[in-house]
Specification:
The protein is mainly beta. It is built from 2 helices and 9 strands, in the order E-E-E-E-H-H-E-E-E-E-E. 12% of the residues lie in helices and 38% in strands. A hairpin with a 4-residue loop joins strand 1 and strand 2.
Length: 146
């Protein structure tokens, strides 16, 4: 069984940078036996050749990466700290009165607020004139107040 050598004008599968998927391409330029530039047969976009991903390369990686500090600890997922803070505040919420959120309402730290979009929250900090930080289950939000 002999393999045909690739040359300019032949078709090849490649990752299209415009279509963002593996499609048939026409080889435009080669250096030696290496494909360098291709043209997508679907969108007609020309770009540098990047081979079709194999099944092993397409699988997501499961190994944890080291953090930028090199300590070897895996990075925390985004928003995890806020969710942990929310869980710690839940115990203190029992039996406290809940105020419906109103932009013109007056609030103090540790007040419970019911927002029509974000749900139940705890006023964490009054940050300045007419602003407050509120911790909701979905994360921290900066809201207007009096």
């Amino acid at each position: 069984m002999s393999l045909k050598k690739m040359s300019a004008g032949d078709n090849i599968e490649a990752n299209c940078t415009r279509c963002r998927t593996v499609l048939n391409h026409t080889i435009v330029a080669m250096i030696g036996e290496r494909v360098v530039r291709v043209e997508c047969n679907t969108c007609r976009g020309m770009h540098n050749y990047s081979g079709a991903k194999t099944a092993a390369a397409a699988e997501p990686r499961t190994s944890s990466r080291k953090s930028a500090t090199g300590s070897g600890k895996a990075k925390k997922e985004p928003g995890r700290a806020e969710r942990e803070e929310w869980e710690s505040l839940r115990a203190a919420m029992e039996g406290k009165p809940v105020k419906a959120y109103d932009m013109n309402g007056k609030y103090r730290a540790n007040d419970l607020v019911e927002h029509n979009v974000f749900g139940l929250g705890v006023v964490q900090l009054l940050t300045g004139p007419n602003k407050m930080n509120v911790v909701f289950q979905s994360g921290k939000k900066l809201l207007r107040c009096q």
